[in-house]
Design brief:
Strand order of the largest sheet: 3-2-4-1-5-6
Number of strands: 8
Radius of gyration: 25 Å
CATH superfamily of the largest domain: P-loop containing nucleotide triphosphate hydrolases
Largest sheet: 6 strands, parallel
CATH architecture of the largest domain: 3-Layer(aba) Sandwich
Distance between the termini: 65 Å
Number of helices: 18
CATH topology of the largest domain: Rossmann fold
Helix content: 40-55%
Strand content: 5-15%
Mean pLDDT: 84
Number of domains: 3
């Protein structure tokens, strides 16, 4: 019989709107636990509607940690800062004899906390690890990329110029370890005796093991049902005071810039929370001293609702994609698949039977060190979704990184799949067609009047120059 885990952790993941927080409370009440927030937006103080925080009533007197601990005037936490703070909270919870339960939808926070990756294990992180210690990480993405090119050109060439979080992460690894991230990854492979081409299990890089003996519960709902659920959330947000929070953020931004003379970077942190930017124009129209026609206000409101709904659906899709490509492959690499369970919350009328009941039963077996059921046996959804979407995480396969630049469009692709999608796209085909016409027009230069030829060339060149990546 297996021994009960010495330092167990329950991690609850899933897309927004699936009921992760509700399940976490149920598990905590049953097993004397305390909850650690793993959602980047919910780290911010206040703004319960935009950040979709659990209410005091919904907490049911269960202690929650890392909720509302960042002020609007403070910088967004780096992943290293989150890991450092969360590890401290987990130790505190354990010191009271309680069970730590991690819940949240920012899955790169979750994965960084669960796994002993190179960044988090470096001795430098035992120092006072806070965002102020590395002020360059709060600079613009362009500044971060320029610095990364200086210290780690291999990684800088890997990331698209708009992938701020990945650029920031690579630079943070260098700043905290003194080694380029590309070198750290090579050393990881060497310690595990892997081949130069990372041909570990199914060709993927096996990450270091988990920090804790972890049971992972994935709350899932089918896409069509979840999307309808998320679409209906916007009306509830409006009724709960969404517009007042949009006004609060807008007023803070204006006041901050007036006081300091500095512009807030609204491309990250709380400023990219879903519901703020989508409703900002409508809120400004409502608050304007100039009376707006009712039809125009109605049009702005409808547009804001549709944008918020679309952004929320896209976010949920990205969360699921992260789980199925990155997290599941990492868990398989750590031999954790037998402790990873999907709970099908599609039918809310069966929530107790399909989600809470199985989760409590599995958690009880896990904490007692008893045999667990086969994860794929729980439901048809579990059998399907617990298989990774592809057998490797591209982020851990530098041998597949192939930066290509389309000479016609200027588009940058970093994988063979990205390149294939681009060259098959309608935009690329149109650009290729325009380029051929341009070349044919130049060949006709001796057969048509010069003025006509010049006009045709100018039109076609203007069209090709309209592609944002083309120089």
């Amino acid at each position: 019989m297996a021994l009960a885990p010495h330092k167990p952790l329950i991690a609850i993941i899933g897309a927004t709107g699936t009921g992760k927080s509700d399940l976490a409370v149920e598990i905590a009440r049953k097993f004397d636990g305390e909850i650690i927030n793993g959602d980047a937006m919910q780290l911010y103080r206040g703004l319960p509607v935009i950040t979709n925080k659990i209410t005091q009533d919904e907490m049911k007197e269960v202690p929650h940690h890392l909720l509302g601990c960042i002020g609007l005037e403070q910088e967004a936490w780096t992943v290293g800062k989150f890991v450092h703070e969360a590890l401290g909270v987990i130790n505190e919870i354990r010191s009271r004899g309680k069970l730590p339960i991690l819940v949240g939808g920012t899955h790169y926070y979750t994965q960084s906390l669960l796994f002993q990756d190179a960044l988090a294990d470096e001795p430098a992180l035992n120092l006072d690890n806070n965002s102020e210690a590395l002020p360059i990480l709060e600079e613009s993405t362009g500044v971060l990329l320029a610095k990364l090119k200086e210290v780690d050109p291999v990684m800088a060439d890997r990331w698209h110029p708009n992938e701020r979080r990945k650029i920031q992460r690579s630079l943070e690894i260098y700043l905290r370890t003194g080694k380029p991230a590309s070198q750290v990854y090579l050393e990881q492979r060497a310690r595990r005796g892997s081949s130069p081409h990372l041909e570990d299990r199914d060709g993927s890089l096996i990450l270091p093991g988990l920090r804790f003996q972890t049971l992972l519960l994935w709350v899932h709902a089918s896409k069509d049902v979840l999307h309808r659920r998320l679409d209906g959330r916007v009306d509830k947000m409006l009724a709960s005071g969404l517009l007042s929070e949009v006004q609060e953020l807008s007023s803070f931004c204006q006041g901050y810039e007036s006081r300091t003379g500095c512009t807030i970077d609204q491309t990250r942190g709380i400023w990219v929370s879903i519901g703020y930017k989508e409703f900002l124009e409508y809120q400004r129209a409502l608050s304007s001293d100039v009376s707006q026609p009712v039809p125009e206000l109605a049009k702005l409101k409808i547009a804001a609702i549709e944008k918020t709904q679309a952004a929320t659906r896209q976010y949920a899709n990205r969360q699921i994609k992260w789980i199925r490509i990155k997290l599941l492959n990492a868990l398989i690499g750590a031999n954790q698949e037998e402790k990873t369970f999907l709970l099908d919350g599609t039918d809310l009328s069966r929530w107790q039977d399909d989600v809470v009941g199985p989760a409590v039963a599995i958690t009880d077996l896990f904490l007692k060190g008893q045999s667990l059921p086969v994860p794929s046996s729980l439901s048809a959804a579990a059998a399907e979704m617990l298989r990774p979407k592809r057998p490797y995480d591209l982020g851990q396969r530098p041998d597949l990184w192939q930066k290509k630049v389309c000479e016609t469009c200027g588009t940058v692709a970093f994988t063979e799949n990205d390149w294939s999608l681009h060259i098959k796209s309608r935009a690329h085909r149109r650009a290729v067609g325009a380029r051929k016409k341009l070349e044919n027009t130049r060949d006709m230069s001796e057969k048509v009047p010069k003025a006509v030829h010049t006009d045709l060339v100018d039109v076609l060149e203007d069209y090709l120059d309209s592609f944002p990546g083309r120089v």
